[in-house]
Amino acid sequence: MLLDYFFKGGPIMWPILICSLIAMTTVVERVMFIYKERKGRNPGRRHELMQQIEQGYEPELTEPDLFNSDRVIRVLAHAMPHRNVALTESLQNSCAEQLEDYERGVAVLDGVITVAPLLGLLGTVTGMIKAFASIGGEELSSPAGITGGIGEALIATACGLTIAILCLIPFNYLVRLQEKVRRELEDAATRLEIAVKGQASAATTI
To answer: Measured on CA atoms in the order 9, 14, 15, 18, is the torsion positive or negative?
Structure first.
């Protein structure tokens, strides 16, 4: 049944199918990444490090902290060795590096959302051209030639719009998640900067 509709949609259905496969692969990869990231969070270790820094103690960073699954711990572990030289730049670079992991897939889904309806529209145009060619040709006496072109136009348009609509759901979720992560990293970076500057001011006063 689905194959019949696919072939009735005309040759434009092949690039639409490719778009759907790209979108599906991207969504599956993002779901696996988010699951792994959430499973690897370590709020206890994060709180321990932040508490040590804010209380003025030297944080007990270990080698595993540099590769910890918790993104905030990774930022802290990469930034703290540079706290007396270029803390702000180090935090910016670390946060940007962490955000790159969350930006993957967003551009792909955005592209599919844009391209799929356009491919459907192209299918509409080619289908209508086929229908009008049937009207002006020898197939005028055969309604099948006309309805076949119109059916091709409608199927391609429906598939393109369906893919774009379905991709909007994970796309919006990924965008919101990216902003949430950005705020979380910025909050941790601000707390770290305030703590380090407060310690430097106290040391200068003494």
So the answer is: positive
Identify the H or E element spanning 29.
Answer: helix 13-39
Name the residue type at position 162.
Answer: T
Tokens of 8: 């009735």
Do the Cβ atoms of 40 and 186 come closer than 8 Å?
Answer: no
- Classify residue 19 by burial, with Cβ atoms within 10 Å: 0-12, 13-18, 19+: buried
Residue 60 pLDDT > 80: no
Q: How far is CA 168 from CA 110, 152, 155, 163, 193, in A?
A: 8, 25, 20, 9, 37
pLDDT in tens, 67-81: 777 888 888 877 777
**How many other β-carbons are positioned within 10 Å of the β-carbon of residue 33?**
14
